[in-house]
Write a structure and sequence with these properties.
The complex is a heterodimer of chains A (465) and B (485).
Chain A (H helix, E strand, L loop, with lengths): L7 H20 L4 E17 L2 E19 L2 E7 L4 H15 L28 H4 L3 H18 L3 E20 L4 E19 L7 E4 L2 E5 L8 H13 L10 E7 L1 H14 L2 H5 L20 E3 L22 E5 L2 E2 L6 H6 L8 E2 L7 E2 L4 E3 L6 H6 L3 E9 L9 E12 L2 E14 H6 L1 E4 L9 E2 L3 E9 L4
Parallel strand pairs in A: 8-15, 14-19
Antiparallel strand pairs in A: 1-2, 1-4, 2-3, 4-5, 5-6, 5-7, 8-20, 9-10, 9-14, 10-11, 12-13, 15-16, 16-17, 17-20, 18-20
Chain B lengths: L21 H11 L6 E17 L2 E19 L2 E7 L4 H12 L16 E2 L17 H18 L3 E19 L3 E20 L2 E11 L13 H15 L7 E8 L5 H9 L4 H5 L20 E4 L20 E6 L2 E2 L6 H7 L7 E2 L8 E2 L3 E4 L6 H6 L3 E13 L5 E13 L2 E6 L2 E6 H6 L1 E4 L4 E2 L5 E4 L2 E4 L1 E4 L2 E9 L4
Helix pairs in contact in B: 1-2, 3-4
The chains are: A alpha+beta (465), B alpha+beta (485).
Chain lengths: 465, 485
């Protein structure tokens, strides 16, 4: 459906709506106002066992308003963009703000800091917008068929889903910022299923998945390749079992290594810092990780999934160092958390419709190391290679980390048998400091990315000895 | 529920500015089925929500939002077409209906006749006498201040308190091509407090809260007034200051009453949602009539518990909420169904077809899921354990439906030594396999409790409010994921 294209005319409509709302809010008595408008559309096409299971197609629009009055704030949202509805929203928002208590830090950013140039980051692909449901279903079907063809042990399927989102975002502030951009994103995920009768007393099913995603249609991996990799990963889990409780080396596959990097951000941001809800409070400039660890946040990479040309406060975005060779850099801040900590923003504000801005990541990347993945494995006589983590067992205040894990047992530098139903645990401070090998296999597949890395030792809880 | 002011009523309601009647619905359903679908439904939703947050002893932000939209679903065989619109102008609704109908394109099937539409009669499980959205905001801000004050008063080592109040009213209007019309107004509120304690360089956090399909009368009971929730958050944070490293390995675990139902929700609940069984992707596929748990276990999903967070008068496919026994004395009795799976298994729907919003397709979902009471006292269960873990509060869980492996995170737990609770343990996960763990339930308390309503369940990217309940439960052996090997 070519009607899905996000055009310059759409961007202009959103800018106009944002600016009109600011005027209305000021007229309603706000000192300052910030308006975010989004227009998006989605197409989801899911196939299971060769037949279409779901086609979902729709567009939607929303406007989020934040008003400030004498340091008092209110945030509101609506999907009704008619002028009279926005007028009512502005009046109600100002009335709500008057019920809040003044917060001396809740002031708009210094207008001199607002971005005046919006860089072109090449985040939109018209070819993705041109995809129709029939084409998307065919891709999904091809991916699933390849998985089922690849290995006879793939006995069932949770399906294959091709989906895309297109979006336009405009943001304006009463301080004078106005910006808009569009983006596209498409993905294919294939989820095969196997019957595992290794233990006839307790037959199980084993699921797995593989995926590809990009802002550009041409950058997606071929559907067949995604299906084959999904089948390979699923079949490999047949016969998974627990291992004995012990301390051993843990190797994180890039799929889970990125979740560890995401956990770093959850304790290395201005919001967690001023709230003291991070075990890293007071440790900027100190060594908090192995010297092999360097993590950056870079919003300015052309075509990358997490890129953004301006932030949720209307500031220019920039590349920031989160950890440099093990040393914690200044944590990522938006304007508010920066003020609370007595410093400037790092241009890291994220903002959703109907929320206050807060620090968020863009492309959060752990840099590649200098050993190959093969070499890393060869140097690991025994341990657990982790491919999936489960649950939310992380306490940011103390750093206690305990999560469910699946993967493979490593013996003599080789993956031997599949492992499931175990947990891995250590304090996060120890996990980061015990990273002793980082591989060179970094690929920016998603907005948070990491290479394979090894932690010298953690506690694996499984069966009793 | 007492009468709501016009601003809190949907524009599509019978008295609204853009009332949708059966005749108009029939025209839209006709468009949806034009290309040959078997079945169509229209889901109109209007939701008003508000939230209030207090932090650093100040009410920092007030928020409010309004959502309005229509979701159109068309099915043909097992295939579903779905579209939605936020604009209830005729041309936009007609476009959504036709887009959803495309799933049947090329089906070469004459449109099915649309019958007369009749209202589904529903009781009310929402015991709201004072809808909170009608009450002035200052009254809710006073609750936040009371919680903050009570947490700080509990102990001088409490250094941070955050309190929040979130409320919503969701009005739905549903029409189906097989002649059902249902309407429901669903209130929901949630009160939450979190506290950070600091002592000699150590920091710990704790939380408390509750809610459900209530209005302000929720706070009338002493054990759930604002101050009680503040005190509970502070109590957990202070208790955890002395926490020691948790053990690692298999051992006996005793789950406290109430919140532990989260284990049940993960360990068996999801696996009994019939979509997974229709597709034969669940561990419980083909197990109806078989012993899948210890004979002590009877598991019930009950959408009719008045005021509970997961209660529903009517599900999002037009079927009344009901009480469904899933496992009786350890034997699997049945699954939770939506329309698609009920049709597949040739069974009656169970009132479990739920969706997050008009933007989402319905799926079989839990409502209020409970493990019913057993014969043992709480004290005799604790006394029976020589060395193990007592799990009191939880921060969440997750399950892999296919193989049944699940984890859940303990936010307050204690070591059991020689039948007594001793040291508090640092945050730790339990990991187990659903069917294995339910077979290992060897003592069950007589102290059943429904959790205070705080839980939200996620599935396929859709969140819905649920609740859980259990008595004290002893699991003979499960893996505790600590660091002390």
């Amino acid at each position: 459906m070519s009607g899905a294209q996000v055009t310059e005319a759409t961007l202009q409509e959103l800018r106009d709506a944002a600016q009109m709302t600011i005027e209305l809010a000021k007229r309603a008595g706000a000192d300052d106002a910030e308006v975010l408008v989004r227009d998006g559309s989605e197409l989801t096409a899911k196939v299971r066992l060769g037949e279409p299971e779901l086609v979902q197609e729709a567009g939607s629009r929303g406007l989020g308003l934040r008003v400030l009055k004498g340091g008092r704030r209110a945030v509101t949202y609506t999907s009704d963009l008619r002028k009279e509805a926005l007028e009512a929203l502005c009046k109600e928002s100002v009335a709500l703000a008057e019920l809040a208590e003044p917060d001396e830090y809740a002031l708009p950013p210094d207008p001199a800091l607002l971005a005046t140039q919006i860089p072109e980051l090449d985040l939109y692909d018209a070819a993705i917008a041109d995809v129709d449901a029939a084409w998307a279903l065919r891709e999904a079907k091809n991916g699933e068929a390849a998985a089922r063809r690849h290995d006879k042990r793939v006995s069932n399927s949770e399906g294959a889903t091709w989906s895309r989102v297109l979006g336009a975002t405009a943001f304006a502030t009463s301080g004078g910022f106005i910006g808009a951009y569009r983006g596209s994103y498409a993905s294919l995920v294939v989820e095969p299923l196997c019957d595992d009768d290794t233990d006839p007393q307790n037959p199980k099913k084993r699921n797995g998945y593989w995926w590809t995603a990009s802002r550009f249609l041409d950058n997606l991996e071929p559907a067949e390749a995604v299906g084959i990799e999904a089948a390979r990963r699923t079949v490999a889990t047949l016969g998974s079992r627990k291992v004995e409780t012990q301390e051993c080396a843990i190797v994180f596959d890039p799929e889970v290594a990125r979740s560890i990097v995401g956990t770093v951000f959850s304790v290395a941001n201005g919001s967690a810092f001023w709230r003291k809800s991070s075990y890293l409070v007071g440790k900027e400039g100190e060594t908090i990780a192995s010297p092999l660890v360097t993590i950056i946040d870079d919003p300015l990479i052309a075509r990358a999934p997490g890129s953004r040309p301006f932030d949720g406060d209307g500031l220019a975005t920039r590349k920031n160092s989160v950890i440099d060779k093990g040393v914690l850099g200044p944590v990522l801040c938006d304007v508010y958390s920066g003020r609370k900590l007595g410093r400037g923003s790092t241009g890291s504000a994220g903002r959703g419709i109907g929320g206050n801005p807060g620090p968020t990541t863009s492309n959060l990347i752990m840099e590649a190391g200098n050993v190959s993945r093969e070499e890393l494995m060869k140097q690991t006589p025994r341990g657990l290679y982790v491919t999936q983590l489960m649950g939310f067992g992380f306490n940011p205040v103390t750093g206690d980390f305990s999560r469910g894990a699946q993967g493979f047992w490593i013996e003599g530098g080789e993956l031997t048998f599949p492992v499931s139903e175990v947990t891995i645990a250590a304090n996060f401070d120890q996990i980061l400091k015990r990273i002793d090998l980082v591989a060179s296999d970094l690929v920016l597949r998603s907005s948070t990315a990491a290479p394979t890395f090894r932690v010298s030792h953690m506690t694996v809880a499984g069966t009793s000895r | 529920m007492t009468t709501l002011p016009a601003t809190l009523r949907a524009p599509f309601s019978s008295a609204g500015a853009a009332a949708i009647d059966a005749q108009l619905a029939n025209r839209l359903l006709g468009l949806a089925l034009e290309a040959g679908g078997d079945y169509a439904d229209l889901y109109f939703e209007f939701r008003v929500s508000a939230d209030y947050v207090l932090e650093e002893e100040q009410v920092k932000t007030l928020g409010r939002g309004i959502t309005l939209g229509l979701g159109v679903r068309v099915t043909k065989g097992d295939a579903t077409g779905y579209a939605y619109t936020e604009d209830l102008a005729w041309d936009k609704m007609a476009h959504a209906a036709r887009t959803a109908g495309q799933i049947a394109a090329g089906g070469g099937h004459a449109p099915v006749g649309i019958g007369d539409i009749a209202s589904v009669a529903t009781p009310s499980f929402y015991a709201v006498t004072a809808p909170s959205l009608v009450v002035p905001a200052v009254d809710k801000l006073a609750l936040l201040r009371a919680a903050d004050k009570s947490a700080r008063a509990f102990d001088s080592r409490i250094v941070k308190v955050q309190a929040s109040f979130a409320e919503s009213i969701k009005e739905v209007l549903l029409f189906t091509s097989d002649g059902r019309m249902a309407t429901d107004i669903q209130p929901l509120m949630r009160f939450g407090v979190s506290a950070v304690a600091e002592d000699k360089g150590k920091r710990q956090s704790g939380s408390g809260g509750g809610g459900g399909r209530y209005g302000m009368e929720y706070f009338a009971l002493a054990e759930r007034d604002a101050a009680a929730h503040g005190k509970e958050a502070a109590r957990v944070a202070i208790a955890m200051l002395d926490a020691v490293d948790a053990p690692a390995g298999e051992m006996a675990v005793v789950l406290g009453p109430g919140d532990s139902g989260i284990l049940l929700h993960e360990a068996v609940g999801h696996g009994l949602e019939a979509d997974f069984n229709r597709k034969e992707t669940s561990n419980y596929t083909g197990q109806v009539g078989k012993q899948v748990a210890s004979p002590l276990c009877t598991v019930v999903d009950d959408g009719t518990i008045s005021g509970s967070r997961g209660a529903i008068n009517v599900d999002d496919e037009g079927f009344a909420g009901q009480r469904n026994v899933l496992i009786e004395n350890g034997v699997l009795v049945g699954y939770m169904h939506d329309r698609l799976s009920a049709k597949h298994f040739k069974l009656d729907p169970t009132g479990n077809g739920r969706r997050e919003s008009f933007r989402s397709v319905p799926l079989p979902r839990m409502t209020n899921t409970s493990l019913l009471a057993g014969p043992h006292s709480h004290d005799e269960i604790i006394k029976s354990v020589k060395r193990g873990v007592y799990a009191k509060r939880f921060s969440g869980g997750q399950v892999n439906i296919s193989n049944g492996d699940f984890v859940f995170s303990l936010s307050e737990s204690y070591l059991i030594e020689d039948g007594k609770l001793t040291a508090p343990l640092k945050g730790v996960n339990l990991i187990g396999n659903g069917p294995d763990v339910l077979r290992r339930v060897d003592m069950l308390g007589n102290d059943y409790q429904l959790s205070d309503g705080i839980w939200t369940c996620g599935k396929d990217g859709q969140s819905v409010p649920v609740n859980v309940g259990t008595p004290t439960v002893r699991i003979a052996s499960i893996t505790v994921g600590g660091t002390q090997a």
